[in-house]
Design a protein that fits this description.
Elements: E1 5-14, E2 23-33, E3 38-42, H1 49-57, E4 64-69, E5 72-73, E6 81-84, H2 97-107, H3 112-125, H4 141-154, E7 159-163, H5 171-188, E8 191-196, H6 199-205, E9 208-212, E10 220-225, H7 237-254
Parallel strand pairs: 3-8, 3-9, 6-7, 7-8
Antiparallel strand pairs: 1-2, 1-4, 4-5, 9-10
Helix pairs in contact: 2-3, 2-4, 3-4
Length: 263
């Protein structure tokens, strides 16, 4: 059963130094992510989306409040929560695709006979069967992100945390990767928290979308249900209406207007 996430009154305050004042990145964050749902955090740049994701990952501890997974306080990183980062720099350049994906099970002491089928299954799931012997430098940007996803899945996490994983990709590859992660999620039904500043991407992927306010002292102002059938099409009236609603909410936070429409 996929795990839920519960955040209550969470605050993240960074202490100042000799040349910088203290900074309150997050204040009074209250959020419940349902087990098995695809939840997107959306907001203007610098609003603290990644900081909030780091709290859920256990990379940082809140200065106030609580962050829990399945009712247990998160005190540090855990195999239960896998993280897909923005860039391929998280991959090990000297290891092949297969070795990168197998890294987690191996350091946990699982024998090759046990992890081999799991790794091959995950490589097949992300479409990298024929590239298992390549090094990361021999792959395209989209393929490197697939390796990251397969590496996280090989540890069989109940929660996947994704920090703008497609931001550096070209538009075509980004669209293909959105389709891929949607397919993988529907196949495995893990709990996903996905950080993005792209409204179209959020609507394409999410069950619900949380709008974060402009920082400092950022919090989740409102949560929107995405009641659109899957697979989704971004030229429908319902899609456009939701895009305009979310765009207006973010414009109000960012303090400037946009004239963009759905891509």
């Amino acid at each position: 059963m996929a795990l839920s996430i519960h955040i209550e009154g969470a605050q993240m305050r960074y202490p100042g130094g000799r040349e910088r004042p203290p900074y309150m990145a997050l204040e009074n964050i209250n959020l419940e992510v349902r087990g098995g749902e695809f939840f997107c955090l959306l907001g203007p740049s610098g609003c603290g989306k990644t900081t909030l994701l780091n709290l859920i990952a256990g990379f940082e501890r809140p200065t106030q409040g609580s962050v829990k997974a399945a009712g247990r306080t998160i005190t540090g990183p855990d195999r239960q929560r896998g993280v897909v980062f923005q860039t391929e720099r998280a991959l090990f350049d000297w290891l092949t695709v297969e070795e990168n994906v197998a890294f987690g099970p191996k350091i946990r002491g699982i024998s090759r006979s046990e992890w081999n089928d799991n790794v091959r299954e995950k490589l097949h799931l992300v479409g990298l069967d024929k590239h298992r012997a390549k090094l990361p430098r021999e792959l395209s940007g989209g393929m490197k992100q697939r390796v990251q996803i397969a590496r996280v899945l090989a540890n069989d996490p109940e929660i996947m945390l994704m920090d703008e994983p497609f931001a550096a990709l070209d538009a075509y590859t980004r669209g293909k990767m959105q389709q891929e992660i949607s397919r993988i999620w529907e196949n495995m039904r893990r709990t996903v928290v996905f950080v993005t500043h792209d409204i179209t991407e959020a609507i394409w992927l999410a069950d619900r979308i949380g709008i974060m306010t402009q920082g400092p002292r950022s919090f989740i102002r409102e949560i929107y249900e995405v009641n659109l059938p899957r697979p989704r099409r971004n030229m429908t009236k319902e899609f456009s209406d939701l895009f305009n609603t979310l765009s207006a909410a973010i414009d109000a936070e960012a303090g400037h207007a946009r004239d963009e429409g759905p891509a």
